[in-house]
Amino acid sequence: MASMASRLGLLAVGLLLSGCMQTTYQAAPEATLKPNDKAQLAKARYAKVSVPEQFRRAIVDYHRKETPGTIVVDSDNHYLYLVQDGGKAIRYGVTVGEEALAFSGIARVGNMAEWPKWTPTADIHKRIEGLPASVPGGVDNPLGARALYLYQGNRDTLFRIHGTNQPEYIGASISSGCIRMTNEDVIDLYTRVKNGTIVVVLEPKHGDSPYNSKMAQGSGTATQ
């Protein structure tokens, strides 16, 4: 009987500990939306799909040593982290570039824009025929609600962290190199950063998120 009680006690402790490690997923706060944001999002023509749970905004434990306020992108696992105090981070699911097109390295936010216009680069024009010279800002613009322009020194890298009109691809590697977030998430991130914010984009095979998104996409479940 005592042995059974001990096993039950250990099981209870294990359940409590596993409960403490559960990730709490949260929608981006409505308070971050300006009146124009609400008006734009209300007329979106793209499919308003539900992002898979493991790619929804969450507060998570963070073990790396970047300074609070730093943005860290784990392209392997399709996550962007905004490092917080106390060993925590806000984690967002992202779309990243195909392997040959992806950016990695250390940059800074050199410019920020709300509902930016999109000007395709010469390289994008070469790969995709029939694009206009530019697309005005708006909810159906590929850059979405916000854009953070990544610079190295005084040079614009031409890579961006931005919104998207294709939320169904959050968790995939299909972009032209930029880092895409849902419009709601990029608005939330935008309110928390400023020009000069450091952005660390980890090199391929250097991601170490506790969730492995590739396993999650393959099996429909995620392990931690």
SSE blueprint and pairings:
Layout lengths: L1 H19 L3 E2 L9 H8 L15 E4 L9 E4 L4 E5 L4 E6 L2 E2 L7 E10 L7 H6 L18 E7 L2 E8 L10 E3 L3 E2 L2 H8 L7 E4 L11 H7 L5
GO biological process, one term: cell wall organization
InterPro entries: LD-transpeptidase, LD_TPept_cat_dom, Transpep_catalytic_dom
Family: Belongs to the YkuD family.
The tally of strands reads 12
Write down the overall mean pLDDT.
81
Q: What is the alpha-carbon Rg in Å?
A: 19 Å
Tell me about the biggest sheet?
Answer: 10 strands, mixed
**Tally of separate domains:** 1
Instruction: Tell me the name of the CATH class.
Output: Mainly Beta
Catalogue the unreliable spans.
1-21, 211-224
CATH architecture descriptor: Beta Barrel
Active site: 162, 178
Family: Belongs to the YkuD family.
Signal peptide: 1-27
Protein name: ErfK/YbiS/YcfS/YnhG
Question: Characteristics of this structure?
Answer:
single chain, 224 residues, alpha+beta, L,D-transpeptidase catalytic domain-like, two-stranded parallel sheet, 5 helices
